Amino acid sequence: MTLAVIGINHKTAPIELREKVAIAREELPETTRALAAMPGVSECMIVSTCNRVEMLASIDSPGTDLGSFLHQHFGVDQALLEPHLYRHYDLDAVRHLFRVAASLDSMVVGESQILGQVKEAFSVARASGTVGTELDHLLQGAFAAAKRVRTETEIGSNSVSIASVAVELARKIFGSLHGRTVFLVGAGKMSELAARHLVQQGAGAILVTNRTQERARQLAEPFHGRVIPFEKLHETASEADIVISSTSAPHAIFTREHGQAFLHKRRNRPMFFIDLAVPRDVDPAMGKLEGIFVYDIDDLQQVAASHMEERSRAASDAEAMIAAEVERFQQRRRTVNVAPAIVSLQRQAEEIRQNELKRMGAKLGTLTGEQLAAVEALTRGLVNKFLHPPMQALKQAARENDPARMETLCETWQLPTAAEEPVAAPVKLEPAREKEPSAVGGK
Amino acid sequence: MHLLWLRVAAILYAAASVAIFPAVLYSAARWRSASVHLGGLAFLFHFVSCVEMLVQAHRWVPVGAREAESLLGFLVAGLFFLAWWLYDAVSLGIFALPVTLFLVFVPALGTTGYSFPSQGVRTNWLIAHIAALLAAYAALGFSLLASVLYLARERRLKAKLTTSTESRWAPLDWLPPLDTLERLAHAMLLFGFPCMTVGLLLGAVLVQETSLGAAYFLDPKVLASFAMWGLYVLLLFLRQAAGLRGRRAAYLSGAVLVVMLAVWAANMVSHVHRFGAQ
């Protein structure tokens, strides 16, 4: 039985190709069942996100090539797909899955969505009846490894996108964002994204102003926001706790004097200005006022970059953890593989014990119930004591992945060969070269 | 009979003093009306008490510390109501009404020195006095701590320092958000204020046994305690009414704490208050 992972991801394939093989959530059960129906596939599941489509399977036939499923099922030209596919088998497949679940293979290392997506794919496969013991053990190991990485490293503790950094800073000022008023000045894409993040975190009223009233209305609509005429910008700004500014004004539209007036009106309650405009909309002198916090695009990027550095440092710790978890999983797997040999050994010994008891039955004569129980206990105890060393030796050899020792033991005790013999990797093709991620963000 | 009216006035002043705080700090119209009405009634009974006291004695000049205290309280309340009538300045009541209560409270206990019915009652009174003041000091200290942490958090946000673990500021990342620290500092003051007021009132009763009379108001310990109480009220008033927060609020909290330490130090020179003295 071989574990195999075949797929494409954001590192190996452009989005044009990824979208051709992407599987919609409602189509996932059917596609998983179709993969399971492929000859040689005994268990399988498919992880499909915007950054990757991966098939994970336990295959029992060396000729099974999961790659063919992709181009057959999705009708994508094999020549087009093949250079972008990556294939991992057995230990590599385990390591790959563990890294994916722990978000070490994500576009934004440390993001938390991927674990949920793997869990969802697993639950779909289980519901579709395509998961057995092998994949079940593997996925439980992957979830445990991912959990360990998240709890024991700082990999996901800090935000790395501009919008989430803005939310994080707002939280440091206001604590809970519930009921906070957000004022969008200008209708830039990034300010919209930041506002969306703030609303998701519970921000209350949204005020929107723009030189073009229509654009302001369009932006306000999804947030059920209130449109403010641009002329009333300074009059209204004091109502807001968080101001996100991204106009194309050639000079600062918020000055120190405005800041003083806002604080006076707000009775010194703090204000947070997120200035996403270049040239800047907020005069840096305003940030010197007590109670006003001004962060421009460079400040936010600097914070995001430092968080990214922290994640990179945490990622190297996480890689070591993954290596340890993979080794642990392998040991458990080998121990499970040696189970038939141990069962066979116990069966043989039991047969010998029963035969010897029968043979000696006549000589022992009529025994009372108590005497019979004592003989049973005596023989069983002897057998168990004799079996203990070879059983331990088998388990130890399995844990240490020592096939020669296992073979010797099996020959000595006339047992079926228990050593893990990985099926030769089917039609090994050149793995796709992995590119560096092109952007930060996304899933 | 004048003592009865004075006691009724003292109770009403106490109720008005309680009502004036939400009225001023939270601009609550209902509490504002309650404090003015209760204070007005107290002023009326106080007036009756003063007139009766002087008529009974067939004189127009107060004699003794208690009569002077009562009359002084009457004048403070009168000036407050005059300011309210002329300028609608209810916020002055946050100082005037509690001060009047302090001045009326001791004379309302009786014309002569007050003595506790038993040693047990006195001991309980003493325990309550100490517990209330210690709670007030603890709340003030905690409020100052929250204000100092506010400054540290604010400084970090202003300096736009990242959370890099290599940064020397990294240990400050655990600090709560600014708003939480601000609310904590304010809530601690709001908790500590009634404790301090009650503690001082209980102390004022305890000191009656010493029969110090007017000398009571010259004692450094008593003076420092009243200064601390006044500063505490000022701090609360400025925080709420003028939106005082951040650096200046921390400095004012620090000033109150310094006065609090002075109150402790005043034990060395006080005639009416010594630690360990029963």
Structure write-up:
The complex is a heterodimer of chains A (443) and B (278). Chain A has 443 residues and is of the alpha/beta class. Chain A contains 16 helices and ten strands. In chain A, strands 7-6-5-8-9-10 form a six-stranded parallel β-sheet. In chain A, helix 5 (91-101) packs antiparallel against helix 13 (297-337), helix 8 (162-174) packs across helix 9 and helix 13 (297-337) packs across helix 15. Chain B folds into two domains: 1-112; 120-278, no CATH class. Chain B is built from eight helices and no strands. Chain B has helices at 2-25, 29-56, 64-87, 93-109, 119-158, 178-206, 220-241, 246-265. Chain B starts with a helix and ends in a 13-residue tail after the last helix. The model of chain B has no long low-confidence stretch (mean pLDDT 82). The chains are: A alpha/beta (443), B mainly alpha (278). Chain A binds chain B through residues 154, 158, 169, 171-175, 266-270, 287, 290-291, 293, 295, 299, 302-303, 306-307, 309-310, 313, and chain B through 153-154, 157-158, 160, 162-165, 176-180, 242-247.
Q: Mean pLDDT of chain B, nearest integer?
A: 82
Q: Give the H and E element order of chain B.
A: HHHHHHHH
Helix content of chain B: over 70%
Number of domain modules of chain A = 3
Total discrete domains of chain B: 2
Mind describing the biggest β-sheet of chain A?
A: 6 strands, parallel
- The residue ranges of chain A in which pLDDT falls below 50 over 5 or more consecutive positions are 418-443
Highest CATH level, the class of the largest domain in chain A: Alpha Beta
The biggest beta sheet of chain B reads:
none
- Tally the beta strands of chain A: 10
Mean pLDDT over the residues of chain A: 85
The general outline of chain A is elongated
* Percent of residues in helices of chain A: 40-55%
Pair with the most extensive interface? A-B, 26 and 20 residues
Total number of helices of chain A: 16
Q: CATH fold name of the largest domain in chain A, please?
A: Beta Polymerase, domain 2
Q: What's the total helix number of chain B?
A: 8
Query: Which parts of chain B are unreliable, with pLDDT below 50 for 5 consecutive residues or more?
Result: none
β-strand amount of chain B: under 5%
Structural class of chain B: mainly alpha
